[in-house]
Amino acid sequence: MDGNGRWAKARGLPRIAGHRAGVKAVRAVVEECARAGVEYLTLFAFSRENWRRPEDEVNALMVLLEQYLERELDTIMKNNIRLRTIGRIEEIPEDVRRTLSRVTDRSAGNDGLTLILALSYSGRQDIVDAARRWSEEVARSGKTPDALSEEDFSGYLSTSGIPDPDLIIRTSGEMRISNFLLWQAAYAEFFVTEKLWPDFTVDDLREAIRDFGGRERRFGMTSDQVKEETESG
Ligand code: IPE
Ligand code: MG
Question: How far is the CA of 4 from the centre of ligand 2 (A)?
Fold first, then answer.
């Protein structure tokens, strides 16, 4: 979700007004994903690098996050949404964390859309943390390192149990991954739109999904092989 600041600047408003407008776009996109039967939606809400922003902006973002959770709890329950988080959650202020775990616990039994909030998230840090957890496990259990597979390693990432993303949408026209799901995005399809996040609508989401539907995903194979596979069912 990128472009909140630019959206505000273009209107002569403070950056926080852009973040507030961004929350409205979040609400619309989450409800549409739940309605349309999307199984997993990950929102890159706050990166680990975002701590470097001015203190005022960081604080305002934390307040917005907490308000969003408080206000959306009913909608989350009504729409059968399960909330999860990824990232260094221990770095999030304690009061916000408490609200997060309340919503996570309350919605744990829901089996519709899994909404994943990436908070204090860094793709590289996620990989390093996974390597640490894995090596602790090796030391403890005496497992041999050469037995480690990609699939095993995925289980140590904060996205354990969540499938890799099929589609990554980036708003505001930036052509970069910015330390999002580095490992998990290996074969994700990218959709970049010039629209700033607060202007991103349900129609834009539908367009991204339609566009995704027309992509040929080869996963290293040839086009002929992929066609053969789909024909043989
Ligand atoms: C994205 O919008 C929202 C968050 C990081 C929370 P930005 O705040 O990055 O907006 P720009 O890039 O300055 O326009
Ligand atoms: Mg930005």
Answer: 7
- Pick the atom of ligand 1 nearest to 22's CA: 3
pLDDT at 143: 86
End-to-end alpha carbon distance in the chain = 36
Residue 174 near residue 2, CB atoms below 8 Å: yes
Domain 4-122+164-232, CATH homologous superfamily name and number: Decaprenyl diphosphate synthase-like (3.40.1180.10)
Closest ligand relative to 4 C-alpha? 1
pLDDT over threshold 80, residue 83: yes
Whether the model clears a pTM of 0.90, i.e. scores above it, the answer is yes
- Using alpha carbons only, give the angle 80, 86, 89 rounded to the nearest 5 degrees: 110
Tell me the catalytic residues: 2, 50
The whole-number pLDDT of residue 195 equals 98
For residue 73, pLDDT beyond 90: yes
Q: Each residue of 117-155: pLDDT tens digit?
A: 999 999 999 999 999 999 999 999 988 899 899 999 999
